[in-house]
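Try this one yourself first.
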């Protein structure tokens, strides 16, 4: 009887041992996988290199380049949002203001329009005020002043958007600098190992090269795309505002017989 029990227990102990070994192996694999995932994620935020002794350490210069590009990425997104909000239709050519000033000029209330646009926040208001201020000098002076004001306002807005272009041009250069530095580190590990570098030792320098390139492109692409889009938007809205002002000024154009339209006080423009 005892022999029979022992014969039955032996396979059970063997199966239990195999399950315990399997569980330990799976836990080790999961732990290693989590460690690899963590190191992969960390590779995007800091640079590491492995020396000839196989010990990994942080590469400070490569990490600083990555952190600079991370900072530029945050700054670029903030600047892009700020510039996009500051150069909308409401700040350049608001439809409600265009309709209101047009109604004033149709009613020959050009002095009221002049007073209404004196402290106007939009570019359209500034164009109207600048052109109506030249009314005593005639229609041609009014038209020239409107076009000059439109050009000045557009140039000022373009200057405010220009940092996006600078950021888009500089970020890839920083990324390229990191790429070159990473390759120098990789080749340095080859030299240090006497020409038989371990792939793990090469991975640090190559990783720095790729990650800095990645962040440089990630900063540059939205910056340049946003710069081109916002600049075209400014150009279109500024042209629309200028066209509306010039259309309104036609009421001040001298008639064919040489007479000019009368103003509210009975004089001529």
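Now uncover the answer:
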């Amino acid at each position: 009887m005892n022999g029979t029990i022992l014969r039955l227990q032996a396979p059970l102990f063997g199966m239990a041992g195999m399950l315990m070994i399997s569980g330990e192996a799976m836990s080790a694999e999961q732990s290693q996988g989590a460690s690899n995932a963590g190191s992969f994620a960390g590779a995007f935020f800091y640079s590491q290199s492995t020396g000839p002794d196989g010990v990994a350490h942080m590469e400070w210069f490569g990490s600083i380049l990555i952190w600079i590009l991370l900072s530029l990425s945050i700054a670029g997104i903030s600047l892009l949002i700020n510039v996009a909000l500051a150069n909308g239709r409401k700040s350049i050519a608001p439809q409600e203001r265009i309709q209101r000033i047009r109604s004033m000029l149709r009613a020959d209330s050009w002095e009221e329009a002049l007073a209404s646009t004196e402290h106007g926040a939009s570019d359209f208001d500034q164009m109207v005020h600048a052109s109506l201020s030249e009314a005593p000098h005639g229609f041609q002076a009014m038209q020239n002043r409107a076009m000059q004001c439109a050009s000045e306002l557009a140039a000022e807005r373009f200057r405010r958007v220009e940092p996006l272009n600078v950021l888009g041009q500089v970020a890839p250069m920083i990324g390229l600098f990191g790429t070159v530095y990473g390759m120098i580190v990789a080749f340095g590990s080859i030299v240090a190992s006497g020409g038989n570098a371990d792939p793990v030792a090469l991975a640090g320098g190559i990783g720095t090269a790729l990650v800095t390139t990645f962040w440089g492109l990630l900063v540059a692409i939205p910056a340049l795309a946003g710069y081109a889009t916002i600049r075209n938007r400014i150009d279109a809205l500024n042209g629309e505002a200028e066209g509306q002002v010039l259309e309104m000024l036609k009421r001040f154009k001298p008639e064919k017989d040489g007479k000019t339209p009368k103003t509210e006080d009975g004089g001529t423009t």
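Discussion: Confidence is low (pLDDT under 50) at residues 1-38, 261-269. The first helix runs from residue 2 to 42.
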